Amino acid sequence: MSGKLCFLASVLLSMSTVVDLAMAASGGVNIAVYWGQNGSEGTLGETCGTGLYAYVNLAFLSTFGAGRAPVLNLADHCDAPSGTCASLAADIASCQAAGVKVLLSIGGGALGYNLSSPSDARDLAAYLWDNFLGGGATGASRPLGDAVLDGVDFDIESPSRFYDDLARNLASLYTRAPRPPRGGKTYLLTAAPQCPYPDASLAAALATGLFDHVWVQFYNNPPCQYAAPGDASALRSAWAQWTAGLPAATVFLGLPASLDAADSGFVDADTLASQVLPVVEGAANYGGIMLWSRSYDKDSSFSVKLQAALQNRNKPTGAGASSHTKRRICKWLTFVYSEFLIQYVVLHYYPSQLQFYN
Q1: Closest C-alpha to 26, from 329, 328, 313, 327
Q2: What is the pLDDT along the chain (358 residues), one digit of tens a residue?
Q3: Is omega for the bond preceding 229 within 30 degrees of 0, making it cis?
Q4: From residue 317, how far is each of 17, 26, 38, 126, 325 by CA, in Å?
Q5: InterPro entries recorded for this chain (predicted)?
Q6: 45/197 Cα distance (integer angstroms)
Q7: Rounded-to-integer distance, Cα 13 and Cα 17, Å
Q8: Is 282:318 a contact under the CB 8 Å cutoff?
Q9: CA-to-CA distance for 308 and 302, rounded, in angstroms?
């Protein structure tokens, strides 16, 4: 019978779906992506539906602070002032149901923002909590309708103060949030500093130790990004500083998803898998990669190529690869058959002993 089971393993091995599932179970990478600044990138629901991303940052709340009324800018997707962004609530719910964390990213490159004082930071924290997270605002005042996001991302690209106050106020609101009887929602704080260490805009905020994930931008920064061909020394040095400096956070390697996505720092998927990720994966708090942005990733298929490259990197190689997989399937089938046989014999010939077997 064992020989027949192993023959069945050979048949299964020839089925590409089985091999694909076996490979998919090994060596993938968590990917965070920014969505919202290009109408051609597809809907938020489609983005999460690809199964490629663990985190999606809605980009951006681009105006806030110093007396400004906060403005959500999602480019051609919707118009927050007229209320059309509330239609995203269904997509957000579908993303979350699929296990994808959806966060609001504040800041971005438009630079129509800054905080003027600790009280300004406190007011912004209350606004974010009430209008995008678990706070009390309802109806039309919530730009994304009844959606409750998973946290706030700091993409601050203009040096200014008081973002540490903002982080503390948000963390306090998170902590005080009521918890349902069976466990409540966990809210996240994330950030996207530039790779020169420490970051000019977020050093004080990150020093609070309150951030869960930090996706460091290793692009548009030649002194600390990967230098092709094969020179990872600058990246290695900066990566060591970031991972050592943020022991309480998981650190992600932030990269452009295509040559067009940034002025410099692009690394093709094969090189990333074979030369760059081996440099960063050894850190205890390595979390994955961040991509700017979904629009560029959709056009280039970068994340699809990366996952394929990682699967190829981690699967058994050489002549023994197929026999290795065959042996694993054979052992599994033998185990299943043995369990079935034991239960069959006990049930039909020794029913009085069934309670002891169970």
Answers
A1: 313
A2: 545 444 444 443 343 333 333 333 345 899 999 999 999 999 999 999 999 999 999 999 999 999 999 999 999 999 999 999 999 999 999 999 999 999 999 999 988 999 999 999 999 999 999 999 998 776 668 999 999 999 999 999 988 899 999 999 999 999 987 665 445 689 999 999 999 999 999 999 999 999 999 999 999 999 999 998 889 999 999 999 999 999 999 999 999 999 999 999 999 999 999 999 999 999 999 999 999 999 999 999 999 999 999 999 887 655 444 554 455 455 445 544 555 554 554 445 555 544 433 3
A3: yes
A4: 19, 14, 41, 54, 11
A5: Cts1-like, GH, Glyco_hydro18_cat, Glyco_hydro_18_chit_AS, Glycosyl_Hydrlase18_Chitinase
A6: 35
A7: 9
A8: no
A9: 10
| The architecture CATH gives domain 28-314 | Alpha-Beta Barrel (3.20)
Residue with tokens 């393993």: 9
CA distances from 341 to 58, 173, 327, 348, 354 (A): 54, 57, 21, 11, 14
If 0-12 CB within 10 Å is exposed, 13-18 middle and 19+ buried, where does residue 273 land? buried
Query: Residue 71's beta-bridge partner residues?
Result: 63
At residue 91, φ and ψ (nearest 5 deg) are: -65, -40
Helix (H, G, I), strand (E, B) or coil at 162: coil
Q: Determine the Cα angle at 221 with ends 220 and 226, to 5°.
A: 95
Q: Is 14 helix (H, G, I), strand (E, B) or coil?
A: coil
Give catalytic residue positions.
157
Burial per residue of 60-74, b for 16 or more beta-carbon CB atoms within 10 angstroms, e otherwise: bbbbbbeeeebbbbb
Phi, psi (rounded to 5 degrees) for 9: -60, -40
SS3 content of the chain, % helix, strand, coil (to 5): 50, 20, 35
Q: Which two tokens stand for residue 20?
A: 């694909």
- Which amino acid is it at 1? M
Q: Which among 143, 147, 148 has a CA at the least distance from the CA of 84?
A: 143
Q: Residue 229's pLDDT is what?
A: 85
The gap from C-alpha 25 to its chain's centroid, in whole angstroms, comes to 18
Query: CA nearest 325: which of 5, 24, 12, 17?
Result: 12
DSSP state at residue 41: G
Predicted local confidence at residue 230, as pLDDT: 86
